[in-house]
Amino acid sequence: MTTSREGSIPLRSQQDIVASRQVVRKLSQELGFSLVDQTKMVTAASELSRNTLIYGGGGEMRWEIVSNGTRQGLRVHFDDKGPGIPDLEVAMTDGWSSGSGLGLGLSGSKRLVNDFEIRTAVGAGTCVTITRWK
Amino acid sequence: MERIPILQMGKCLLVTIQVDMQDQTALALQDDLAAKIEATAARGVLIDISALEMVDSFIGRMLASISGIAKVLDATTVVAGMQPAVAITLVELGLSLPGVLTALDVERGMRLLAARDADFQPGGGQDLDDES
Q1: What is the overall mean pLDDT for chain A?
Q2: Test mutation, B2, B18, B63, B89, chain A, max A CBs within 10 A
Q3: Which of A105, B2, B29, B68 has its CA 20 to 30 A from that of A18?
Q4: Alpha-carbon distance B50 to B121, whole Å?
Q5: pTM more than 0.80
Q6: Does B22 touch chain A (CB under 8 A)?
Q7: Would you state the pLDDT for residue B121?
Q8: Which candidate, A69, A66, A67, A55, places its Cα nearest to that of A118?
Q9: Measured between alpha carbons, how far is A44 from A61 in angstroms, rounded to an integer?
C-alpha cells in the first residue's frame, strides 16, 4: 500500500463540516469515482466530521490517495482527542446515540464505504478511518 | 449564517435549497418555515432539493421534522427532486424518510399538493392546472 498524496483540514466549526464535504467531493471526482460512489463518500465524510466536532470536541480530517497494486482509493481519517467511546459494540448499532442525533453516523457511514476502521480509548480520543476504492 | 429564502405562491410555500447547508442553516429553515406557515396559513410546503448533492442524517432529519411540524400546523409537505445518487446513499445510510411525501420534480410535487387539498390553488386562487 502506498500513499501518493495527502493533506488535512481542521474540524473546529460547522463551516468545517461543509469544507470536509467539499474536499472529499473534489478528491473523489479526481479519482474518477462514479456519482453514486462520490455521494456515498461525501455523505460518510459529513457524518464523521460532525461526530468529530460534536462528540469529539473538534479535531482534524486527514486524507490520502492510496494505491494497492493496480487500484487507487481515497482514505480519510477523522481524528479527535475527545472522551473516546466506552462501548464500541453498542456505538456501532443503528439508532444508538450519546447525543441528540439519530445514531446513524457510525453504523450508517460503515455501510457507505469499502473499509471502515475505528480506534478509540476512553479519555484519549477516537480515530475513524474510511476507505473507498475505485 | 446564510438563510434559505421561502417564497409564497398562493397557499403554498416554496423552498429551493441551492447551497451546501451548514447545520445551523438547516435548523433556521425549520424555524423559519414553521413561522411562515403560521403567518400565511399556508396549506402546502414544497421543498425542492434537486440541487442538493448530498443528504446526510442531519439534513434528512430536518426534512422529516419540517414535514412533521407542518402537519401539526395543518399543512402538507412534499420534498421534490432528490437526485438518484442521493436517494441510493440515503437509504444505504439507514434513512428512508418515513412519513415524508416525495415527488420526482417540482411540477409533480405541485400536483400532489393540489390533489391532496381541494382548498389549495397555486397562484392565489387562479387554477393553473393545464388540464382544466
Answers
A1: 93
A2: B89
A3: B68
A4: 23
A5: yes
A6: yes
A7: 55
A8: A55
A9: 12
- Residues of chain B where predicted confidence (pLDDT) is lower than 70: 118-132
Closest Cα in chain A to B55: A43
Q: Which of residues 45-64 of A touch B (CB under 8 A)?
A: 46-47, 50
Cβ of B55 under 8 Å from any chain A Cβ?
yes
- Domains defined along chain A, listed by start: 2-133 (3.30.565.10)
B20, three cell numbers: 451546501
Residue from the list A22, A47, A111 with its beta carbon closest to the beta carbon of B56? A47
User: CA dist A130 to A23, A42, A133, B65, B118, Å?
Assistant: 15, 11, 10, 30, 50
C-alpha cell at B61: 432529519
CA distance A32 to A73: 10
Average pLDDT over residues A64-84: 95
Mean pLDDT of A59-63: 98
Residue B120 has a pLDDT of: 60
* Contact state of A109 with B93 under an 8 Å Cβ cutoff: yes
Question: Who among B58, B88, B90 is closest to A50 (CB)?
Answer: B58
Given this model, what pLDDT does residue B122 score?
Answer: 52
Instruction: Express each pLDDT in A84-132 by its tens digit.
Output: 998 888 888 887 776 656 677 899 999 999 999 999 999 999 999 999 9
CATH class of B6-116: alpha beta
Closest CA–CA distance from residue B90 to any residue of chain A (Å): 8
Beta strands in chain B (DSSP E): 6-9, 12-16, 44-48, 76-80, 101-103
B93 and A18: CB-CB below 8 Å?
no
The pLDDT of A74-90, averaged and rounded, is 93
